[in-house]
Write a structure and sequence with these properties.
single chain, 312 residues, 2 domains, 7 helices, 25% strand, globular
């Protein structure tokens, strides 16, 4: 068993050191990341021997594996056994543990090698599609938007007519709603019970929608000086769930603040035409109901105990 422990973690340095020592005492091979880069990606691979053979389970997340922040942060994650994602995840782990140099991956993009170029390529593709008269739209949820290359690409997309919606919880250096520059860009920030921490990206892609989750904010430190991941969400039902979540955030008029062209924020309020809608409350209720249905399904599922095979 191998674990990567990032010691340069805000507020968690002492705890991470203790966890690393505890795992080493238990026989786990502990790696302390890549020299010169902070490891910020959230990924786990579990390999199991099952009746049908060896199966890899991958978990990709936007939030830390931390039991405290898991209760107060809003994050998303993907649990899958997709073979192609498994191949990419294995290449990624081999690279960050020193078993090999970073190789080309089919689906995943990693910082600081390919993530920046992938993001710029996705934005520029929407720009080109709109110029060709195709469907084009960008909807993004991140914690911060600071990177000038990304901002310039979004401005260019806006000038081409791409409709862009950004949910940026914290620092946003882009100015929306400016004629001739960012008229087609809308920026909101949600301040509510849970700290908004998920990174979700949607590109209409001419009708062939592409959706991603990521560990990275759109900042130079994340794209150039950290180990990060951009993960595609491949199943339609999973993409649909994320699209519904994004739509809820832009419908919020209780705890949502709209960024204005002059850099100030205006709190959105309910009206006669728009009754109160609190995104976090709606999404929380959906999560609770989903958990209840899952527990009910498990209670009505029969699983028989099989005898263990005798040893030779």
């Amino acid at each position: 068993m191998t674990a990567i422990v990032e010691l340069k973690a805000r507020f968690d340095e002492a705890r991470n050191i203790e966890w690393a020592r505890e795992m080493e005492r238990a026989g786990v091979q502990v790696i302390y990341g890549v020299r010169g880069l902070k490891t910020h990606a959230k990924v786990c691979i579990i390999v199991r021997r099952e009746p049908q053979g060896i199966v890899r389970y991958m978990h990709f997340g936007t939030g830390n594996y931390n039991e405290v922040t898991a209760g107060i942060y809003g994050d998303v994650s993907l649990l899958t056994c997709d073979d192609a994602l498994g191949d990419d995840a294995t290449k990624f782990f081999n690279a960050v543990t020193g078993a090999s140099q970073p190789g080309q991956m089919q689906y995943l993009a990693a910082a600081p090698t390919t993530l920046r170029s992938r993001l710029l390529g996705l934005i520029e593709a929407e720009t080109q599609r709109r110029r060709e008269g195709q469907k084009a739209a960008i909807i993004v949820k991140v914690n911060s938007l600071v990177d000038t290359d990304i901002i310039d690409a979004l401005y260019e997309a806006s000038r081409a007519g791409v409709k862009i919606k950004l949910n940026v919880r914290g620092v946003c250096c882009l100015k929306p709603g400016i004629k001739g520059l960012s008229k087609n860009i809308e920026v909101v920030s949600i301040v509510d019970r849970f700290l908004e921490h998920a990174r979700v990206l949607y590109f209409e892609h001419g009708g062939d929608e592409q959706t991603f989750i990521s560990s990275a904010d759109w900042m130079p430190r994340n794209l150039d000086r950290r180990v990060e991941l951009l993960v595609p969400v491949l199943k339609p039902e999973h993409r649909k769930r994320l699209h519904s979540m994004l739509a809820a955030y832009f419908k919020d008029n209780v705890n949502s603040w709209k960024l204005l062209p002059d850099g100030t924020y205006e709190r959105l309020k309910p009206s006669d035409k728009r009754p109160p809608f609190q995104a976090q409350a709606v999404l929380y209720e959906r999560a609770v109901n989903s958990k209840r249905k899952s527990e009910q399904s498990n209670r009505t599922t029969f699983e028989t105990h099989q005898p263990r095979a005798r040893e030779a």
